[in-house]
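Whiteboard transcription, Tuesday session. T.W. wrote the C-alpha cells on the left side:
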C-alpha cells in the first residue's frame, strides 16, 4: 500500500456494479487502476449496498481515509441502491455525468443510464454501457468526430450511433441471454453445453456461414439445426454453432437497420476480448472492420471521466 498512499488524497473508487457481479477499483486521479476487488452483484447485495461498498473499500480507506466513489450499472436500477432516472437520447457526455445521483452526503455518485425510442418505435434502455461509451470517447478520440457505429456485446448487446461524440440512439439485442437460456433449458445443444471455457472456432464459423447463406430466413427457423445437425452427425460442438447463428443474426440485423447512418465500414466493438473477437468475425463476413476496445478499460476510463467532472463541480 506504500505506493498507493503517496497519492491517496486525490484517489477515488470506481465501481461497475452489475446484476450478478461487482468489480470495484481503487484509482489514482488520472483513473489508472491501483487495486481491485470483487463483490456481489445487485441481486445478491440484498439491499445492503452501502454496507457492501464500505466493507470492500475498508482496506483502502484504512490507509487513505474516506474515498469518493463513482458507481455505474444496475446499482442505479430498480433493483439497485437507488433508482437513477435515465438520460434521454440524444445525450452529450457532460449531460450523463451531470445527471449522477449523489448518496452518503455526496461521497458516492451513481451514473444514470440512457433511454431512447429505437428504430422499431420501441422504448430502449441501457445501464452501464453508457459509462463504457464515455470511456471509449476518452480512449479513442476518433469517436468524437463524425458519425460512428458502436457495438457493445454482452448479455444484452447494445448497438449505438454516435455523432460528434453525442449518443443519438441505440438498439438492444438479448443475444447473450438467449445463448444462456437455450444452453441451460433446451434440448437444442444439450444441458450445460454452453458452459465452455473456449468456444470451438470451426463450429462457430460454420454457424456464421450457415446463417449468412440464408439471411432471408428468420432466426426462429434456423435454431433447430443445433439439434438436427447433431442427429445427422454433422455437428460435434452445438453450443459454438448456436453462438455463430445468434451472433450472425445480431450483426446482420443491426447492420441492416443502422449501418446506412455511417459512411465507413468500421464498427467500434467495446467488450471483453473473447466476445469482441467473435463479433469481429461476424462483421468481417459483411465486409466490416472491427476496431476493438477492451470493455473493462472503457468502464474504468468512463468512471474516471465522470469523477473528474464531478470533482470540478460540473465544469468541462
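and on the right, the sequence the group agreed on:
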Amino acid at each position: 500500500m506504500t505506493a498507493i498512499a503517496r497519492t491517496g488524497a486525490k484517489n477515488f473508487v470506481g465501481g461497475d456494479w452489475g446484476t450478478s457481479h461487482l468489480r470495484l477499483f481503487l484509482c489514482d486521479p488520472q483513473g489508472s487502476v491501483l487495486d481491485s476487488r470483487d463483490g456481489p452483484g445487485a441481486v445478491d447485495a440484498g439491499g445492503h449496498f452501502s454496507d457492501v461498498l464500505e466493507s470492500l473499500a475498508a482496506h483502502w480507506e484504512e490507509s487513505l481515509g474516506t474515498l469518493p466513489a463513482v458507481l455505474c450499472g444496475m446499482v442505479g436500477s430498480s433493483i439497485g441502491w437507488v433508482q437513477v432516472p435515465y438520460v434521454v437520447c440524444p445525450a452529450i457526455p457532460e449531460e450523463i455525468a451531470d445527471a449522477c445521483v449523489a448518496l452518503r452526503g455526496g461521497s458516492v455518485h451513481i451514473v444514470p443510464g440512457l433511454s431512447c425510442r429505437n428504430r422499431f418505435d420501441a422504448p430502449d434502455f441501457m445501464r452501464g454501457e453508457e459509462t463504457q461509451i464515455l470511456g471509449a470517447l476518452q480512449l479513442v478520440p476518433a469517436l468524437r468526430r463524425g458519425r460512428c457505429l458502436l457495438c457493445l456485446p454482452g448479455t444484452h448487446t447494445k448497438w449505438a450511433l454516435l455523432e460528434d461524440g453525442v449518443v443519438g440512439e441505440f438498439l438492444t439485442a438479448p443475444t447473450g441471454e438467449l445463448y444462456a437460456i437455450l444452453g441451460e433449458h433446451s434440448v437444442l445443444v444439450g444441458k450445460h453445453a454452453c458452459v465452455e471455457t473456449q468456444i470451438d472456432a470451426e463450429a462457430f464459423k460454420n454457424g456464421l456461414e450457415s446463417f449468412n447463406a440464408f439471411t432471408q430466413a428468420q432466426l426462429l427457423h434456423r435454431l433447430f439445426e443445433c439439434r438436427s445437425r447433431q442427429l445427422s452427425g454433422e455437428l460435434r460442438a452445438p453450443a459454438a454453432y448456436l453462438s455463430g447463428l445468434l451472433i450472425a443474426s445480431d450483426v446482420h440485423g443491426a447492420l441492416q437497420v443502422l449501418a446506412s447512418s455511417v459512411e465507413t465500414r468500421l464498427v467500434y466493438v467495446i467488450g471483453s476480448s473473447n466476445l469482441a473477437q467473435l463479433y469481429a468475425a461476424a462483421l468481417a463476413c459483411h465486409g466490416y472492420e472491427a476496431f476493438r476496445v477492451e470493455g473493462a478499460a472503457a468502464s474504468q476510463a468512463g468512471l474516471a471521466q465522470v469523477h473528474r467532472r464531478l470533482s470540478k463541480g460540473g465544469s468541462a
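Someone added at the bottom: The longest strand covers residues 33-40.
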